Automatic annotation (TrEMBL):
Natural source organism: Pelecanoides urinatrix (Common diving petrel)
One Pfam family cited in the UniProt record for this chain: Hydrolase_4
SUPFAM superfamilies membership: alpha/beta-Hydrolases
PANTHER family linked: ALPHA/BETA HYDROLASE DOMAIN-CONTAINING PROTEIN (PTHR12277), PROTEIN ABHD12B (PTHR12277:SF69)
Name used for this protein in its record: ABD12 lipase
GO biological process: monoacylglycerol catabolic process; phosphatidylserine catabolic process
UniProt-recorded Gene Ontology molecular function terms: monoacylglycerol lipase activity; phosphatidylcholine lysophospholipase activity
């Protein structure tokens, strides 16, 4: 699996869904690592085909994979050792894994909804907030960019935002 391969797969799935959707909207919904894939695909669709996806929903996103890897819990024990950045973070770049949502959102114009739980222990909510601020600064129509946080008391963490019964209404 590569970043380019993931993006190509999503575009093929988009083409398949669009061909069968009639007048229905087709949106990209990415969760965690999938948020970088969703923004990559949306940008490629826009820049290479001149087509905007109808909307993007990013659930538990990050700015780019390097910043995400620096914050995920599994890397916590390694952060104190010399060479952490080179061995762990730089190795992602050597494998052409960037997932630069922070750069992608700067050129998008479709509606963008960012969802993050305050108790996300995998990707801290400040990464979602930072991505939102980047998008909001870049979008000409600021009303197309929304950020919704879910309070800790709901216990949604990294994986359970989709279980929130209010989610369908929030997305609409």
């Amino acid at each position: 699996p590569t970043e380019s391969g993931f993006t190509t797969d999503v575009l093929a799935l988009y083409d398949w869904a669009k061909a069968r959707s009639g007048n229905s909207s087709v949106l990209f919904w990415g969760h965690s690592l999938g948020t970088g894939i969703a923004t990559n695909a949306a940008r490629k669709l826009q820049e290479e085909r001149g087509v905007q996806v109808d909307a993007i929903v990013l659930e538990s996103p990050y700015t780019d994979i390097r910043e995400a890897a620096a914050h995920i819990p599994i890397t916590m024990i390694y952060r104190q050792f010399p060479g952490f950045e080179y061995l762990i973070l730089d190795s992602l770049a050597l494998g052409n894994m960037f997932f630069r949502s922070n750069e992608n959102v700067k050129v998008l114009a479709c509606p963008l909804l960012i969802l993050h739980a305050e108790d996300d222990a995998v990707l801290p909510p400040h990464l979602g907030r930072k991505l939102f601020e980047t998008a909001r600064s870049a979008y000409k129509d600021k009303s197309k960019v929304k950020f919704i946080t879910f309070p800790k008391k709901l216990g949604l963490g990294h994986d359970y935002i989709s279980f929130n019964p209010e989610l369908p209404a929030l997305v609409k």
